[in-house]
Design goal:
Length: 149
């Protein structure tokens, strides 16, 4: 990840949850985001198939109310630090049986950003005093996100 992108992600985590992250945290962040985007797309694929469609549309993705609120929060933050283009490059589009329409593809960076907001806020739930997430915080976040998404 280029230095400019690292600075933006560090600022993102400070703005969202007043925490500091390092390069290893950013690798974990990228891994979590790609896993959860994949999980959302797999569910979206199943919903599209159940509706006899051969393409995944945005409304097929199982976006919860809480994630939708985090996406809105990300949009506000994104205006200030411009992370969408970076998230678009980092978010992998896994091969599935069905393809995504352009609108679905276009929404993935904001969904990834919303997941990032939820992730950053989760650290404060695990430990109100956390300033630098430890590996055990990341482990809890992965387990919680796997449970809920």
């Amino acid at each position: 990840m280029e230095l400019m992108a690292i600075d933006r992600f560090e600022r993102f985590f400070r703005l969202v949850a007043s925490i500091d992250v390092d390069k290893e945290d950013l690798r974990r962040f990228n891994d979590l985001i790609n896993r959860k985007v994949y999980d959302l797309l797999v569910r979206g694929e199943a919903i599209a198939k159940s509706n006899d469609r051969d393409i995944i549309q945005p409304n097929d993705l199982p976006i919860t109310k809480g994630l939708q609120e985090c996406i809105h929060a990300f949009r506000n933050i994104n205006e200030e630090i411009s992370l969408s283009a970076i998230l678009d490059q980092l978010t992998k589009l896994p091969p599935l049986d069905l393809d995504y329409n352009d609108e679905t593809r276009a929404q993935l960076p904001e969904i990834a950003g919303g997941l990032g907001v939820a992730l950053a806020r989760s650290f404060n739930i695990f430990d109100e005093d956390v300033k630098n997430p430890l590996p055990q915080h990341w482990d809890k976040a992965f387990r919680m996100f796997d449970l809920l998404l």
